[in-house]
Amino acid sequence: MHEMNNLRAVDLNLLVILDALLSERHLSRAAERLHMSQPAVSHALARLRHLLGDPLLLRGKGGFQPTARALELARPLAEALQSVRSVLGGAVFEAATAQRVFRLAMSDYGAAMLLPALLRRLRADAPGIDLVVSYASRPAVIAGVQDGEIDLALGVFPQLPEQLHRETLFEETFACALDPASLAAGEMLSLDTYLARPHVLVASSEGGMAAEVDAALAQLGQTRRIAVRVPYWTVAPDVVRGTDLILTVARRALQGSAAQGLAQYAAPFAIAPFAFEVIRHRRTDGDAGIAWLRAAIAQAAEPG
């Protein structure tokens, strides 16, 4: 009999470690979350690979990338572990009958990417759940999570206080959008053209994702001219239409009707991708409602 079919032969702690690795997709962050050493987590991953007969996680840029088998396991594993935690802790969250208000923080980018799918899930499976969504600067959002005024925050968080926990929802890359009439027929977006054109910058007071673009240009010894600064992702494509402006934004922001009619190109230089994350306070570790909502958000973040 395969050892996976005999639970007595399986160290179930390995499943907790696998859940952390699939959530964090980074060895050191998973080790920190589990309060284990990196070598211990690495050894556990080797055991999991042998147990499941699959590499599970492959090294990529900035961390691990899950295999197809790992992606199949992620959601049922998380749900199974949450069920165990509920049994042991006595915490029960019945989504279908729950009456609760959750407070979320995210930018208009996060709202556009996730809210429609999330709300469809809530209306179907948890009609008694209400959401209050706010937007503020990154420091204010972090402070809100620390103070308990925000249950979950979605966004880009390079630095976090120790008591806050992060989970990556997806890795995002950049793309450029411009009015197709502003390029000659068959012309591609070259670096020279990119640098010669004026640009639209979408940035909050602390710099936001646009800092990645300017950091990449700085490595080339180049800068761009910012002709327009706007605080909202949703208005930026309309600013570009009928002009020679270039908009460099997260690729997902250009999906759907928002960028309809605009030409989209890969950036003509390398820009580091960034992780779009959900953060919470560690005090919510045993909150079954928060765990359910996190899983629903992760599902809403899945492509397609």
Chain-wise SSE layout:
Blueprint: H1 13-24, H2 27-34, H3 38-52, E1 57-60, E2 63-66, H4 68-89, E3 100-105, H5 108-125, E4 129-134, H6 138-147, E5 152-155, E6 164-172, E7 174-178, H7 191-196, E8 198-202, H8 210-219, E9 225-230, H9 236-240, E10 246-250, E11 263-266, E12 274-281, H10 288-300
Parallel strand pairs: 3-4, 3-5, 8-9, 8-10
Antiparallel strand pairs: 1-2, 5-12, 6-12, 7-10, 7-11
Helix pairs in contact: 1-2, 1-3, 1-4, 2-3, 4-10, 5-10
| Euclidean distance between termini CA atoms | 38 Å
| Sheet of most strands | 5 strands, mixed
Output the strand order for the largest sheet: 4-3-5-12-6
Global morphology = globular
Mean pLDDT: 87
CATH class of the largest domain: Alpha Beta
Q: How large a portion of the residues is in β-strands, by DSSP E?
A: 15-25%
Could you characterize what this model shows?
The protein has 304 residues and is α/β, with parallel strands linked by helices. The protein folds into 3 domains: 3-89, Arc Repressor Mutant, subunit A; 100-166 and 276-300, Periplasmic binding protein-like II (D-Maltodextrin-Binding Protein, domain 2, 3-Layer(aba) Sandwich), CATH 3.40.190; 174-272, Periplasmic binding protein-like II (D-Maltodextrin-Binding Protein, domain 2, 3-Layer(aba) Sandwich), CATH 3.40.190. The chain is 39% helix and 22% strand. It contains 10 helices and 12 strands. The strands form 3 sheets. The chain has a 5-stranded mixed sheet with strand order 4-3-5-12-6, with helices on both faces. The chain is globular. The relative contact order is 0.15. The model has no long low-confidence stretch (mean pLDDT 87).
